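Usage

Read records sequentially. Each one opens with the input sequence:
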Amino acid sequence: MNKQEVVEVVNGFLIEEFEIDEEVLQPDAILREALDLDSLDYVDLVVVIEDNFGFKVTGEDFIDIKTLDDFYNFICSKAQPV
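and closes with the structure output:
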């Protein structure tokens, strides 16, 4: 799965599942600020990632993820299409 495909899938579920405005989804956006998710939303985000990309995510995985681009790159490094 290439990065553009990952970006499309991630942005799609962020818009649909989490009602994030599309214009907020810029690669250099700070993840926590752009998504404005609470702790329960992060649990849902982990489930959606696992369902869409076929790998487990832990809270520790988010430590080094600062921007949306970091998030996309993290998923690209782990993704196996389901």
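Summary fields computed downstream for this record:
- The chain has one domain: 3-78.
- The helical segments are 3-18, 31-35, 39-53, 68-78.
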